[in-house]
Amino acid sequence: MEYITLNNGVKMPQLGYGVYQTPVEDTERCVADAIKVGYRSIDTAQAYGNEAGVGAAIAKSGLPREEFFITTKVWITNAGYEKAKASIKQSLKDLQTDYIDLLLIHQPFGDYYGTYRAMEEAYKEGKVRAIGVSNFYPDRFIDIEHFAEIKPAINQVETHVFQQQKEAKEYMKARNCQIMSWGPFAEGKNDYFNNPTLMEVAEKYGKTTAQVALRFLLQSGVVLIPKSTHVERMEQNFNIFDFELDVDDMKKIEALDGGESLFFSHHDPKTVEWFMSILQ
After folding, report:
1. How far apart are the first and last CA of the chain?
2. How do residues 217-231 score in pLDDT, each as one tens digit?
3. Separation between Cα atoms, residue 181 and residue 216, nearest integer Å
4. C-alpha span between 205 and 270 (Å, rounded)
5. Which of the ends of the chain has fewer CB neighbours closer than 10 A, N or C?
6. Reduced to 3 states, what is the DSSP secondary structure of residue 105?
7. In the Cβ-directed half-sphere of 213, how many Cα atoms lie within 13 Å?
8. In terms of Cα–Cα distance, which of 21, 103, 115, 116 is closest to 70?
9. Among candidates 171, 180, 178, 166, which has minimal Cα distance to 260?
10. Residue 181: helix, strand or coil by DSSP?
11. Which residue among the candidates 17, 39, 48, 137 is catalytic per the annotation?
């Protein structure tokens, strides 16, 4: 495993296991399988509804808590100081842990300044080892980073071969904030796994297109959390440390970047209206 050192000195595995869209009833089993494969970094969120499954799998693993790196996120319905503070307490309970390794604001909507104050307080109390944000585009990231007492350690954003976040990465790098990917496979959009470039490179290294795509992100300095409910794919996604893409192949994959989301834009008024509807 390779590690990233965050801006406060905390070390984080560069590869983890994500449970977005994992059914609540399957989460404990999937996380237990991932742990057996070798994953120690697990990414969940209040909005996923499966923190309890993650906590149960870790508690039953028999491994020391300190071997794990748990990430969760405060959802927009819990935005604001008081709600966020209560939600953090609930997340700790659901995860069956005394501390969260990384806590993020899930979306840049609602009273996220109040949320961040609650997170800073939890950090100072030792309930959280590192804090950050998710889905904060450069404009909002610069804003909250400027006013935050404890600077964001992570910004988790859509990052894959077709949206490499080149501009956003520069702003994060300048402010010593680590980029973390959600959707490293873009949920298969753009016929992801049959992309000719990825297939050509994969054949060269005797790897799958998925492994090549993950290796590209890894070598690009991105923290990634691929998700699968199948053990064999968990294993494939984990086995990306025994080869290295050469400079030419990195450039070939870099050229796939379209610079735009394959999902939605937080700058789109209709998208913002949808998020606001959740709060009503």
Report:
1. 43
2. 999 999 999 999 999
3. 12
4. 43
5. C
6. strand
7. 31
8. 103
9. 166
10. strand
11. 48
Q: Give me the amino acid identity at 241.
A: F
Planar angle of CA 71, 168, 17, nearest 5 degrees: 25
Provide the 3-class DSSP secondary structure of residue 3.
strand
DSSP structure string for 135-174: S--HHHHHHHHHH-SS--SEEEEE-BTTB--HHHHHHHHH
CA 240 to chain centre: 18
**Residues 6 or more apart whose Cβ sits within 8 Å of residue 91:** 46, 51, 72, 74, 100, 103
For 204, list phi and psi in degrees, rounded to 5: -60, -40
This prediction has a pTM of: 0.95
Q: Is 106 among the annotated ligand-binding positions?
A: yes
CA angle, 200 then 162 then 76, to 5°: 145
Domain locations in the chain as residue ranges: 3-279
| pLDDT confidence of residue 278 | 87
Contact in structure between 106 and 135 (CB atoms under 8 Å): yes
Q: Which amino acid appears at position 49 of this protein?
A: G
The answer to whether residue 48 is catalytic is yes
Q: What does the DSSP 8-state code read for residue 99?
A: -
- CATH 3.20.20.100 corresponds to the domain 3-279: yes
Read off the pLDDT of residues 7-52 as tens digits, 9 standing for 90 and up.
Answer: 999 999 999 999 999 999 999 999 999 999 999 999 999 999 999 9
CA distances to 208, 261, 269, 273, 280 from 265, in Å = 30, 7, 9, 12, 21
Question: Do the beta carbons of residue 200 and residue 242 sit within 8 Å?
Answer: no
State how far the alpha carbon of 231 is from the alpha carbons of 9, 37, 135, in Å. Answer: 32, 8, 29
What is the band of 279 on the pLDDT scale with cuts at 50, 70, 90?
A: confident
Number of other residues whose CB lies within 10 A of the CB of residue 104? 27
